[in-house]
Amino acid sequence: MATADDPTAARAELGRLLGGVQGRLEDLLAAERREWHAANPDSVALVDAIAEVVFSGGKRLRPAFCAAGYLAAGGDPAAPEVVDVAAALEALHTFALLHDDVMDASELRRNKPTAHVAHAELHRREGWRGEPRRYGEGVAVLAGDLALTYANRLAAGAPPRVRGVWGELCTELMAGQYLDIRAAARFSPDPELARHIALFKSGRYTISRPLSLGGLLAGGSEGTLAAFEEYGLAVGEAFQFRDDLLDAFGDTDATGKPSQLDFRQHKMTLLMSFALRDEPAVSDLVGDDLAGTDPDELYATLVATGIRDRVEAVIEERVKVACEAVRAADISPEWAAELSTMAHQAAYRDH
Fold it and tell me: Which PANTHER family has this protein been placed in (predicted)?
């Protein structure tokens, strides 16, 4: 356990636990590949599509927050129960990414072709019948479904209270995704709805729920769990708002996915909700066709109107709330400091 005499122990414990999560994912996918290859070699394509996402350099944020919540709440670093739940979160994230890329028509993920693009190209290269695009999307959707199956399998052995939160997390993710595509279709500026979508689609599922799952597994006190909730919701919002900024202003080489994809998909992010509601220069430029607006001109207009700075101010306020919550929590100073560091890393990342 981390102690005042060894301030590096918290991060070392977290690193060891995340190493166990990595090993669990590797073992699971290798076993699945062997089993399905023996049954029918062609069927391993779905497992390989999952492995391509899992092992392509993701940040492992959700397992990290789950493991941090577990250890900060007093969980035994040598106990195995948190490893499966943390691995389940990464499998769930893989499901979401595979489906997201289809819904967003995204061509890149972590600087590599997305699953639906890669399999559409395979279809064309092999000269198979039917439409390559639909084939590629079908493979990606099925791979996502299989990743969700693996996630639920990994979470199945958790205690009932933990499984209850797991079910809420999955439901919130789906509802948030639906509200996101519905808001894009309606294209009506609504900052409150944008914050609601950010909360369910990303905030809870990325930070708050993983942290709570870890705290519950460790048997954390109600006060600790309440502090985790306040911290997690604040960091989760900041995380999603940074995602909005990276899409609008980021570099594809750094983020590993196409920039300004939210513009092309008419995504009603907090950034665009503020801009379209409050800035006539932006609303006049965009009209009712965000996807058709020149991205360079929109970029310049957003900078000139100060919208980027307003979102940065929201991020700063949310991080401050999060850090105050863990400083007041019944956890060690070392873990409060580590969680504060993790909040800054999530909110101020560049990819």
Answer: GERANYLGERANYL PYROPHOSPHATE SYNTHASE, SHORT CHAIN ISOPRENYL DIPHOSPHATE SYNTHASE
Helices (H), 55-159: 61-72, 81-103, 115-126, 132-155
Task: For residue 262, give the DSSP letter.
Answer: H
Q: Are 21 and 90 in contact (CB under 8 A)?
A: yes
In a domain? residue 333:
yes
Half-sphere exposure (CA, 13 Å, Cβ side) for 263? 25
Q: How far apart are the first and last CA of the chain?
A: 31
The answer for residues whose C-beta is within 8 angstroms of residue 138's C-beta and 6 or more apart is none
* pLDDT < 70 positions in the chain: 1-7, 252-259, 261-266
Cβ-based burial of 345 (10 A; exposed 0-12, middle 13-18, buried ≥19): middle
CATH of the domain at 140: 1.10.600.10
Question: Domain for residue 118, yes or no?
Answer: yes
Q: Is the pTM of this model over 0.85?
A: yes
Distances (CA, A) of 274 to 191, 259, 305, 319: 6, 20, 11, 20
What pLDDT sits at residue 255?
54
Burial of 181 (0-12, 13-18, 19+ CB in 10 A): middle
- Examine residue 2 and state whether it is found in any structural domain, yes or no: no
Q: What tokens were used for 154?
A: 């990994």
What pLDDT shows up at residue 198?
78
**For residue 16, what are the contacts with CB-CB under 8 A and spacing of at least 6?**
77
Distance, in Å, from the CA atom of 247 to the CA atom of 244, rounded to the nearest integer, reads 5
Is residue 313 packed enough to be buried (19+ CB in 10 Å), middle (13-18) or exposed (0-12)? exposed
Nearest to 239 by CA among 81, 347, 166: 347
Total domains present in the chain: 1
User: How is the chain split among helix, strand and coil, in percent rounded to 5?
Assistant: 75, 0, 20
Spatial CB neighbours of 10, under 8 Å, sequence gap ≥ 6: 2, 71, 72, 332, 334, 335, 337, 338
For residue 155, the one-letter residue type is: A
The CA distance from 265 to 161, in Å, is 38
Q: Domain containing 129: what range?
A: 9-347
All residues at 6 or more sequence positions from 160 whose CB lies less than 8 Å from its CB, including other chains: none
> Does residue 4 fall inside a structural domain?
no
